[in-house]
């Protein structure tokens, strides 16, 4: 009889890590502390425990070592004492910096970009998501392929070794580029399918509202509240990677599509924004963006700015935006905060996705913002056009209906594009 393996032996031990960041002046110290706290949360999400955070005031990054060499030697002493496995840097490292730091520290070195890519490699569930992550990892790896030593020799597991990382040693630049080319073709095919699906949606157009926001702002909880969905909501970072779309009837009885999207983050790697552009198409195509904001966060302003910056990268900054202050159940002075952010951002509502507070005001605000999408018309349609009459019932809100001389007269509110299609039946 085989002896059972204890459960604790089946779960890989968490790697020990330290987090490293630099700031330009004392005024920037608090911002970097917040950023290192976030890096530590990312590390936990990836499967590591951050034992210590190291910061250094340095107006410019050292081109060879990122921070000062003396600081690195101080960190090496700590790492030797605590048996630290991995050193996490809060900013992107150049290939030269990574090689020099690995050589000096004799440990695996990851920057913020690699850490986020690793989390995405764990979380991607759909074939599209996996393709996008691998493409981003290859784009990151290609310029750093030369001279990678310690990281490439420690492929037994742990953070930074998921996705194509497990086969890095087998690849040379040519093979990586060939793989990248195949991935691009596959993603282009996925994009074609998405475009076809989107085209079929827009033939009888429905307004699309995309939920955006900083990671862990409560987008998925709000999405579930609005749509009755049961999408996975969690306080862990990047709980939602693949977009989810669901239709609901809003208070004016029109159908609206809602889309839940991946959370944004400070210092979001450009490789990731580019690779996930297909996924973020729902943001680009949306008629209205719901910017969900964690009103209880100490770093609320930095998180708002990070989202706004990502929208600029996506060329979506000029979309109609409704700012949604979420988690107001955790605040003491809700009205003062709401007043302050209305002054700062303009179009703002305050809600709690957890308790449901403020959701009625939110949906009414969404309907107001989408009012230009619909048009109320009076039509006279022959009785034999039953498929068209049925379509108008399905896609519009009927206010009145009369049967006169073999025709149906309808007073109906419709999406504008559909109203344009049936304009020839309009009553003068």
Structure write-up:
With 428 residues, the protein is α/β, with parallel strands linked by helices. It has three domains: 11-153, Rossmann fold (3-Layer(aba) Sandwich), CATH 3.40.50.11060; 206-369, Rossmann fold (3-Layer(aba) Sandwich), CATH 3.40.50.300; 374-425, 2-Layer Sandwich (Alpha-Beta Plaits), CATH 3.30.70. It has 16 helices and 13 strands. The protein has helices at 7-10, 29-46, 69-82, 95-105, 112-123, 127-141, 150-153, 173-203, 219-227, 270-275, 281-285, 300-313, 334-345, 359-369, 386-395, 416-421, and strands spanning 15-23, 48-57, 86-89, 108-111, 208-213, 244-249, 255-260, 288-294, 321-326, 348-350, 374-382, 397-404, 407-415. Strands 6-7-5-8-9-10 form a six-stranded mixed β-sheet, sandwiched between helices. Strands 2-1-3-4 form a four-stranded parallel β-sheet, sandwiched between helices. Helix 4 (95-105) links the parallel strand 3 (86-89) and strand 4 (108-111). 36% of the residues are buried. Residues 1-10, 147-156 and 165-169 have low confidence and may be disordered.
